[in-house]
Specification:
Oligomer: single chain
Helix content: 25-40%
Number of helices: 8
Strand order of the largest sheet: 1-7-8-9-10
Radius of gyration: 20 Å
Order of helices and strands: EEHEHEHEHEHEEEEHEHHEE
Largest sheet: 5 strands, antiparallel
Mean pLDDT: 80
Distance between the termini: 18 Å
Amino acid sequence: MLTSQISTELLTTQFDMRVLLVEDEPDLGAAIKRTLNQQKYLVDWVMDGNEAWAYLENSSAQYTVAILDWMLPGITGLELCKRLRLKANPLPVLMLTARDRTEDKVTGLDAGADDYLVKPFGMVELLARLRALQRRSPQFQPQQLTVGNLTLDYGNNTVVRKNTIDKQQSIPLTNKEFQLLEYFMKHPNQIVTTEQIRNQIWEVNAESSSNVVAAQIRLLRSKLTNSDCANSIETLHGMGYRFHLTNESE
């Protein structure tokens, strides 16, 4: 059975964490995005509530958490949160605001926010609150992901190939190679398109043409081939790519 070949060990990580940041203060938004990128989060940053709602309604990217400023051009962060909850969307929401009165906090939480951070705040506290939200999120991520004889280790950006019972080989990966292999391993034996890959592991406004995706796949495939994992990523011309499970006995 396919499910028997996939196992996880439940501990936290930032990989595959995609954040929708809605903040109209340019300096603060840039600082938050830079901090989150340094922690390996993917961040889509918008400065307008209407644009944010379009992302939430239409984006094919799956967000792990939303960081919403209360006061925004167009739709307010409070209204965005209410709309999410009316649609029964469980996306964790961290509300940012200069409003520090108890009644304001109650209003934000009653609108559906999961946490509330008053400006000004330190980036260390922001990161701590995001980690807390992740731990409560249904999208909580594992420390390791094992598919067939490959195990991703989120702690050190490596994939380990188990050759025999007593022998295994560690393959170092770049951040993008790690995210790409993670995506394939979460969709084993499935055809995934270039657009699906681009939407999930590149930020919305990033330069990520189909050639960029293909180039990353070539680099990843080369590392796997050099470690005796040849043919694990199949190119299906006109369709996309497919990751093949490998067995311990191979």
